[in-house]
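Researcher: Predict the fold of Apolipoprotein N-acyltransferase.
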Amino acid sequence: MLGGIALYAAFPPLDWWLCSPLGIALIVLSLYGTRPRRAAWLGYLMAAVFLFPTLAWVRTIGDDVWLMLVGTESVFYAAMAALAALVFRLRAWPLWFAGLWVLMEWARGLVPIGGFPWARVAFSQSESLFTEYAALGGAPLVSFAVTLCGALLAQAVLAGSAPVRAREGVWASAGSRAGAARSAVWLTRSAVWLRGAPVAMALAVPLLTLAIPRPGDEGRTVNIGIVQGNVPGRGMGFMGDEPAVVLKNHANETKRLAQAVREGKLPKPDLVVLPENSTDIDPYRDAYASQIIQDSVTDVGVPTLIGAVVAIGDEHRATRSLVWDPVTGPGAYYDKQHLVPFGEYTPFKEIVLALWERANLVGRQSVAGDRPGDLRMGPVTVGAVNCYEVAYDDTVRRTVRAGGTPLVMQANNATYALSNLPPQQLAMYKLRAVEHNRAVVAAATTGISASIGPDGKVSWRTRELVADMNVVTVPVRTEETIATRVGAVPEWALMMMGAAAAGVAAWRGRRRGDRMRND
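Model: Structure tokens for Apolipoprotein N-acyltransferase follow.
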């Protein structure tokens, strides 16, 4: 249980990143030497202790949803723990255990219903000694490095107990005091080595990132306006009762930004970014909404990225990042690819709608986009990523490969305002910036909106539940990191390593059992 609590403490809002390897070490110590079935139960308990507080933001939707989500996600940790009980019997088991952890996080991000890659260990390391591993192998390599470090610390503790047991046997059989003394010296040195080697390796894992080269500045910048309009309500009713209020809030804040530019209080932007769902009315179908947007964009005078939910036919919708030009109006767009189950669409629709009345709040079912979010805006091609998608490695990577720089993260966190979701999402933004050597500009309806450099450092951010705006100057980087170029190759290598080790351990265990039966 302590391991799960320590893991939770590593995540925002506490952000005590050192607790991640410590938590992993405690988890290993609880699993080591157990049988797979008992390890599975311990793994499930650990996961529940970790995930219940880490995913507490889900309670806004309902405690039943929170319980079901944690219960489902904990199954993956249980399966990983059962396999870990096998690989602990092999030499170099910290490596195999870390590979299994990566495999578990990959599976969580894949199934069920599109996966849920939230609360990966990597997302607790947005500003730590492990962060730079993201530029080499993305979030999977960061998770691997943290888990390996924790497993090595556990190995040091476990190895130190072996010479103590051996010392008792040697002393009991020693024929003289001199022999006992020599044995004691030898065993003490052995204990120092057995403990010291894993500790040294555990310290080396994060320190090696200091040798990772980082891409340099390319001497090019762009000015981006960020608008956070705020919303009138809270929780599931964040839009309030007044029609078009969310749209008006963001249009008014855009005009306030334009006024500040005219007065010389802010530099002139090259483009402006509004959040996901910054209009609560479809501007394609509603002339009133279209005119409000056009007026505000004309006032600011530069291409503006609008977040809109637009109708697709009579039964479907899309969550869209829409480029609105001050002269030509709506143009290029990106439709969100990774949709939120039960938020933007309803899996197993007939059954779910029959059992849960709240599921009807989804309304029209969203359809996913099928192309990356590279959108030309003024002097740059931005990389549009929508809210929930930041947790998915492939979506962000494809956007960068398509030419997106800087990355623009549009989010609507209004339902979860003042929970631990917004700071967790900010941590993901920071890790993605380092992973792909791209500045990140984040715009959220209620916060946290922010400007993040390619080094993962936040240069400006908003408070939550306030209307705010600013114009930030961010670097434009085009050089790709190793992680961007190689993609999922490191992840697959680490997963196969862990899976192969589990297979070897299971095979050896079966052979050993066969020999015992034959004897």
